[in-house]
Structures are given as C-alpha cells and as structure tokens.
C-alpha cells in the first residue's frame, strides 16, 4: 500500500533562508555544555522546529508568503516534520498547507505514487514560503527593536499583537 | 609627677632626632590631622613605660612582636649601612627629683641592605644630679628590682596610670568598664584608704580571740560550771563550724556570681536589644522563606513563559480561518466520497446462482466440510467433486480500486480534522488566558520586588543593629542572647542560693551570739570581772571595725558618685542635650557597683543613650577616680595623657571636656585633630584654626588653667603617601 500525501509530507525536512539563521541562534536552544545550557535556558523555543512552526504560523497569521526560490538556503537542520511536537500543531499545520494547496482533497485519493511525491514537494514548498514570510516579519520587528524579544512574554504578545 | 619633655628619635613616623616636645603645667594640647603622628606620640609614652604599643585592634604589641617596624621607614631607607637607632626619651619631674627615662631599640643594616634586628629594647633610667643626669642601677644589685618597680615607687603607680592614660573610645572603655560591678569596686580601693580598715579589723579580731582564749582557759579550770561550759562550748564550736562552712560556700557562690556577672557584662544586651535581635532574625527567616517560595514560583513561570504557545496551541491565534477552510474541504471530501459510492453501488448488480442451486452459505459450508450435502458424499479438496461444488459460487463481481473506492486519505484527514477541532475550540479565549497569566506573573514579580526591597531594609536594620550592639553578626547576637538567657538563669539560681545561705548565716550567727552570751553570762561569777569587760570591749571593737569599713565603703561610693556627677554635669551642661544623672547601682550579691544614667523620673535610661553620653559618663568616672580623694590628690600628682578622648563629642562638648580636664589635672597632655583648617597657602596641608583656638585659650585662662599648644605637621616637601619619606615637624603655637 502506498503512503498518503500527509505521510509523504511528514518525511520532508523543510528549510529556511540562511539570512534568518541568526534568529534561530538567538531564540532557539541548541547545543550543550553547561554554559551553553544556562544561556539556552532563557530561550523560548526548545528546538529549531518550534521556532520554525512559530515563524510558519506568523506567516499564516499575516498571510505573508514569500515565494522567492533564488535565496540561499540555510544548512541548519530542523528535523523531518514527523518528529515535530506537539502532534496537534503538526496536524493543524498540515491542514493549513492542504488549504493553501487549493487541491480538492478527493483528488489526492486518485493520485498515483509519482504524483503524490510531486505534490508532497509542492506542499513542503508552501510550508517554507509561509515560514519565509513569518521570518521576515519577526526579523523586521527585531530590526526595529533589538530588545523587543528580550522582554517577558514577548513572543506571546507578538502572537496577540494586532 | 610632671612630664617635662619627650624626645623621639626615629620612632615610627618620627624620623630623625629633632622631634622634641616640651610640656608645661596645665593643658598641653597636641593638635594634628589624621596620619600626622598623634597616636604614635601616645604610643611613644606607652613604649617607654611598658615596652609595648597598641595596634589598631586594641591589642598590645611588644617590641619583640614589632622589631624593625618600630623604626622610622625613612631612617631605615636613608641609612645605607650600620646601626639604625630608635629611641624615646622622657624627662620626668617628681617632687624630689628629675629623671630621664630612655628606651632604645636598634637594627643593623648590612652593606647589601639586609636588616639584623635586635631581639628586645633596652631601658635606661637616669637621675638628675644638679646639672647632669646620672644612671640609676636597676636589677639584682640595683636601687630597684626592675624598671616596673622603679616606675611604681618613684614615678606613678601603674594601677593609677591605667585610669589616666587612655587612647580613643576603646581605650576609655578599657580604662573603666561601667557595666562590670567589680571595676568600680576595685576603683574604691585605689582612691581611698579603705584598705586600712582591714588592718583594724584584723587587729581587733586578734585582740578579741586572745581574750577569748584566756576566758576559755579560766572556764575549763572552773570545776563548778566545767560540764555546762564544755557542753555549750561544743554547741558553739558546732555552730561556728557550720558558720565557717556556710561562709566558705557563700564566698564561693559570690565569686561564682561575680564571674557570671562579668561574663554577662561582656556579652550584655539589653532585653530590648535581645528582642530586637530575635525579632530581626525571625523577620529575616520569614522574608527569606517568602522570597524563596515566590522566586521558585516565578522561576517556574519564567521557565514556562511562552511555553503555552505550544502547550495550549496559542501559536495558532489568528489562523483559525484556515481551520474553517480546511473543514469545508474535508466536508466536501466526505460528501464527494459518499456520492461516488452511491453511484457505484447503483451500477453494480451481483450475479445470482442457477435455480435449484444451494444457497451460497450452504456451498461454503460444503467446501469447508469437504462433503457434498446434495449427493451426501465426500468431496475432498482438489478432487473433482470439490471443484464442482466450488464452481457453484458466484465469481463474476466487478473489479474496482478499493483504495479509491473507500477514500484512501479518509482516515488521516479525519484524524487531522478531529485534532483541529480540539485545538481551535477554545481559540477565542487564548488571548484572555494569556493576559490573565501575564497579570498573575507581573503581580508576583511586583510582590517579589517588594519582598526584596524589604529584605534590603532588613539588611540595613541588621547593619545598624549590629553597629549599635557592637556585634559582628546576627548569629553572634543570637548566640549572645542564648548565652545571656542561660547565664541569667544560672545567676538567678545562684541569687536564690545566696539568699538562703545569707539567711541561714544570719540565724546561725544569732544563735552563736546567744550561746556565746550565755557562756559569758555563766562565767560572770567564775572568772575575773575585768576579763569579762575586756572580752566585751574587744568584741565591740572588732564589730565596730567591720561596721566602719562597711559604712566607709558606702560613703566612698557616694563621694565617687557625687564627684563623677560634678564632672559629668560640667562636660554636658552647655550642650543643651539630655544627660541625666549618674547613679551607682549596688549589686546585691557582691560588693560591686554598676554605673547607670537616670532621667528626671529616676528611670534607668542607660541602654537608650548614644555613644557620646556613655563616653561622657566613663570619662567623668575616670576623672573622678583621680579627683575624689582630696587627700590623695592624684589629679595634682599625676598627668593625664589621652589620645582622641573626644572622638564622639561635638564642638561644645569637646570644649567642656578640655576645660574639665584642664581644671581637674595639674598637667594633662591631650591629642586631637580638631582646631585645624585647610591651609590656603599649602595644598593638602592644615593650619591652626586660630578663632576656635582663641575661644579655648580664653576660656582656659578664665579658669586659671595654662594652655600650651603644639601642632604636628608634615613638612611641605614630604609626600605623606610615601611612608619611607615620612617625617613629622613639631611646632609650638604662639598663643
């Protein structure tokens, strides 16, 4: 039996533009060692994929999708989507992508393996494009005020900001 | 005794040989800024008389401890090689003679700069013989056993000196400890001739005992009353033994009590102070606990800050329109699937079995049992019969793609849809929840800030309290309080024991007197009447001597108290501040007294007074120790030498103190840093404040007290920061 479009998409590891690598370094925990660990403890995002999801939903919230494919992609890994937690958010993310793909869901049932593979790449692109959009918004705010995200509840407040 | 001069050669900061200060009668005021050699001058007096100086912590440092450190750094630096001598000479004048006391210490500096230090200093005493000083021999074959004996006999008794040479507040407290009852008791002996009464008591006691022995001898030879006398005598001896035993116990108890009292004084904290120490400790512990709990709670929140973005899916806020669209897509998917299946079912017609054929279920049963139920014979698998039965099953169902037919993505999309519902259902409350959480957090953060501020205030209170109570730490305070409470408990127990013993002794003494009197009465017709009278006379004399000593002691305490209050009033009366009256409190269990300050309502307010007032009380007692006994005239005989006795006093009180010292002592040498102002012509140097000094000299002259002012200066060319260059200039001020 072949895999569903979702299962195929789960196996993908989305990327992001290299230019925003610094945001991941600044806000998401990575690495080890005692000093590093202490420094990391103050960071909001426990993994790169969490910050990735945050950026994706920021893009979705602001309906900001950047489709520029000629950018330099970061080599920083954010894991395959199937490893992302919590699962509910991962599922919600999938539903957003399916909506954005604008393909009636019944059509996926009729796609053969090859077609499903092609479509899963397109869906991954959608994730990357909204994430790109979200990252550019976060970057904009960071540029405006370097201390903004140091404030308590900054990332939560940024979500609820009108 | 009068000090005529002191000459310092390479002693501490006094480099070179030109450091001579000549003193007059009256008040000799040595004025110098901090670091200009006042304390070193005071040290010089001490070094000559005792071979030690006091370090900053108030400990005695002997020559053997200090060695080369006694010598001027400049002298050590400038001497290329050879002996570097440090010397202090004091010219002393007594009623009969003039003496020159010289203490020396030296080091040898080798060519390569190494220092070879002598182990000890040497002291030389010279007596003036018309024009020149001739050495006095000290030691085994000398005029005096040692220097200490010479000083005690010819110059000043060292127990008196301890009360009139003192340095700063610490020195004053050391010279007179007003909270220790035994200090004032020992002072009484020093200022009076009270010890002579001990002699009277001893002599009268001896006379009485000898007469009593004679009486006893007569009575034991009397045949008439011998038995009666011996019986009473035995009773008397038994009571006497009991009295002696109890007196010994009482003495031990009183000694123990004094010791306890002394220990208690050393760590004494008023009950109010004890409460404050405990209260503060409890507040601090409670504050620490609150801070710790709240910090933990905030830390948990801080660690969780923004985590609810994920844990409660707040991250999807503002994107729920996507869920609505997906929901619609999913519903369309389900609808399409349903439609298609219905259409499909419409087109499928299942083939029917030929007429007369067994039902499908029966056919499957026959295949399962491998037996034909129609012919009732076996039909084993792979046999012709079995295949014939199998052929009866319908085989022509339409072939369709089951995955497509059932909706290949149906299950996963259903899962996604259900999951979405669970996280979007409360999405409209996300913001309210986030705001509420933030409000709680910031309230707690504010509370923590408030607690931390309170903690800071408690720390300030602690510093203030420790400073006021002279404690190193609050823990020390707690230990002190515990010690005090334990000592107070022991003291109370001892007080009860002493009271019981005193009562028992009183009863026994009365009984003793009664029996004794009956013996004497019974002897009236047995022994010579003159002997009876003699016995009675010596007994009365012995008793009267004891009573006289006791009343004399009380009288002396009253005199000392009165004299102390005169000085105390003179020092304080012009200040305008409260000063009250000093009262000596008798310790009921010993012969000692405590000095306390009372207000107009006769309440003891000592614990509520500031350092200045306590210092004034101690200084007044010190002055009174010397001035109370007009016959002994200590204040006229010996000079007071004090460094910074006025450190806690304001200008008015300082003036009063100097006047009091000047009018009490025939000679006094007082060092202080007051009466100085910045010298406008010499940067970083001082000059005499002539206006202030003029007021002092005028007032002293009005009192008929001579004043001699010496200014200690650092020459302009010397950099005071370079210890190896330091030297002091001694300038007499013309008034």
Keywords summarizing the entry:
heterodimer; A: 162 residues; mainly alpha; 8 helices; 59% helix; B: 735 residues; alpha+beta; seven-stranded antiparallel beta sheet; six-stranded mixed beta sheet; 56% helix; elongated
Q: Biggest β-sheet of chain B: count, sense, barrel?
A: 7 strands, antiparallel
Low-confidence stretches of chain A: 31-36
Shape of chain B: elongated
**Largest interface: pair, residues per side:** A-B, 39 and 47 residues
The fraction of residues in strands of chain B falls at 5-15%
**Computed Rg of chain A:** 17 Å
Shape of chain A: elongated
Q: How many domains is the backbone of chain A divided into? A: 1
Helix proportion range of chain A: 55-70%
Distance between the termini of chain B: 26 Å
Oligomer: heterodimer
Low-pLDDT residue intervals, each spanning 5 or more residues of chain B: none
Q: What structural class is derived from the secondary structure elements of chain A?
A: mainly alpha
Beta-strand content estimate of chain A: under 5%
Average of the residue pLDDT scores of chain A: 88
Helix content of chain B: 55-70%
* SS summary, helix count of chain A: 8
User: What is the rounded distance between the termini of chain A?
Assistant: 46 Å
Roughly how many Å is the radius of gyration of chain B? 51 Å
Mean pLDDT of chain B: 86
Detailed description of the structure:
With 162 residues, chain A is mostly helical. Chain A has one domain (5-160). Chain A has 8 helices and no strands. Chain A has helices spanning 5-10, 21-27, 34-41, 48-61, 87-101, 105-110, 113-144, 154-160. In chain B, a hairpin with a 5-residue loop joins strand 4 (52-54) and strand 5. The two termini of chain B are 26 Å apart. In chain B, the strands form 6 sheets. In chain B, strands 1, 2, 6, 7, 8, 9 and 10 form a 7-stranded antiparallel β-sheet that branches. A 6-stranded mixed β-sheet of chain B has the order 11-16-17-3-20-21, sandwiched between helices. In chain B, strands 4-5 form a two-stranded antiparallel sheet. Chain B is elongated and about 170 Å long. Chain B has a domain at 328-428. By secondary structure, chain B is of the alpha+beta class. In chain B, 56% of the residues lie in helices and 15% in strands. The chains are: A mainly alpha (162), B alpha+beta (735). The A-B interface holds A 1, 4-7, 41, 44, 50, 53-54, 57, 60-61, 85-89, 91-92, 94-96, 98-99, 104-106, 108-110, 152-157, 159-160 and B 302-303, 305-311, 313-319, 322-323, 325-326, 329-330, 332-333, 336-337, 403-404, 407-410, 412-413, 415-417, 419-420, 422-424, 430-431, 434, 438, 441.
